[in-house]
Design brief:
Layout (H helix, E strand, L loop, with lengths): L17 E4 L8 E4 L4 H14 L6 E5 L4 E4 L5 H4 L2 H5 L6 E3 L7 E3 L3 E9 L5 H14 L15 E5 L2 E9 L4 H8 L6 E3 L21 H16 L5 E4 L3 H4 L2 H9 L3 H4 L6 E9 L2 E10 L2 E10 L8 H9 L21 H13 L2
Parallel strand pairs: 1-11, 2-3, 2-11, 4-5
Antiparallel strand pairs: 3-7, 4-6, 7-9, 8-9, 10-12, 12-13, 13-14
């Protein structure tokens, strides 16, 4: 997108009437979540998608505490820099239930989700709704061939939705660190993200806030779909959290089975040059479990390291959770090729 600066936010976007909302209902058309819990917001989004009348449009707007969100069919080890993630305690990665690419969320960006009947669903058209909201604030923005305003979508039966992230004052340094990976030899059957340059809207307008952007999107949505009712403010209440569908979703999203176990099949070929030779590892994984790890040595100075020893080393990894190897037999023994290989393998699999 291309942005142009502006001096003042139009007054009509500074305040918008909102109605308090605390009880479970999908009877409204516009929802603004007060929660910044990404597990709740993603689950509430999916609950609305499943329970809203399929013939009616719906808008959800929310912000999240810092987190990395990957698409339903993505490989987290291909998308996320886990070494950088571990250096920032408290920032989780979460697999959402819709497709699309990987994004970084924090309180400096605003997330929007537009739900429509399937026969009316058009990614370009929904991108235009948000585009008109941005332009109404005085910013000359454009949508490229990939509809870059929107980053993900989901289609089920008679309903579909588009959602995206608008960077307002996000930590772009953290975004870059967490999403910067170099695993070119990791080949996955999942969907790889397309890297794109990004910037914050506040770079062009210091006055822009989450509230002003939210109000502009609400007004553009109301105008586009002829909606006259006010936005409904959603609080993360115990009542909502105990709705059966939402309760199960809140339990599922952080679980290993969902976050890692849903990872599509992938292979990863890596090598390392040790002082005593070059080792190549061909790793195959499916659903987050290591199926095989084939090791080979070339250019070696070793005379007594047998091929069957390499086979045995690879077999010690089979059936283990990729990324969660724990203690491996031989990894702490006295210096030697076995310890060298296992230490190396553990490092590349857990980062």
């Amino acid at each position: 997108m291309i942005f142009q600066a502006f001096r003042q936010i139009p007054a009509r976007f500074r305040v918008i009437r909102r109605r308090a909302y605390t009880t479970p209902s999908a009877q409204h058309s516009i929802y603004i979540s007060n929660s910044t819990n990404p597990y709740f917001n993603l689950t509430f989004e999916d609950w609305l998608f499943r329970h809203k009348a399929p013939e009616e449009p719906l808008l959800l707007i929310y912000r999240d505490d810092p987190c990395v969100i990957i698409g339903r069919n993505q490989n987290p080890w291909k998308e996320v820099n886990f070494k950088a993630l571990r250096e920032r305690p408290g920032i989780p990665f979460i697999r959402r239930r819709s497709g699309g690419g990987t994004v970084y969320h924090d309180l400096g960006n605003t997330n929007f989700s537009i739900h429509l009947p399937r026969e009316e669903f058009d990614r370009h058209a929904t991108a235009q709704v948000v585009l008109r909201a941005v332009r109404s604030l005085g910013i000359d923005a454009r949508v490229n061939d990939r509809n870059d305003i929107c980053v993900a979508y989901k289609i089920v039966n008679k309903r579909a939705y588009h959602h995206g992230t608008m960077l307002i004052s996000s930590r772009l340094d953290t975004l870059g660190d967490l999403l910067r990976t170099t695993k070119d030899t990791m080949i996955t059957r999942g969907v790889a993200s397309v890297r794109s340059p990004v910037c914050n809207l506040q770079q062009y307008c210091r006055e822009l806030t989450h509230d002003t952007f939210t109000n502009a999107v609400v007004l553009a949505f109301q105008n586009e779909y002829g909606i006259t009712s006010p936005a409904q403010v959603v609080d993360e209440t115990d009542e909502l959290r105990h709705v059966e569908y939402i309760r199960k979703g809140l339990e599922e999203l952080p679980s290993w089975d969902w976050a890692y176990g849903q990872t599509p099949e992938f292979t990863y070929t890596v090598y390392h040059n040790f002082a005593w030779g070059r080792v190549t590892a061909d790793i195959h994984s499916k659903h987050g479990i290591i199926n095989t790890c084939k090791l080979s040595i070339s250019d070696t100075r070793l005379e007594d390291f047998a091929v069957d020893a390499l086979t045995e080393l690879g077999q010690t990894l089979e059936g283990k959770r990729y990324g969660f190897l724990g203690d491996l037999p031989g990894a702490r023994e006295h210096a030697g090729p076995r310890r060298d290989i296992l230490t190396w393998i553990k490092e590349i699999i857990e980062t």
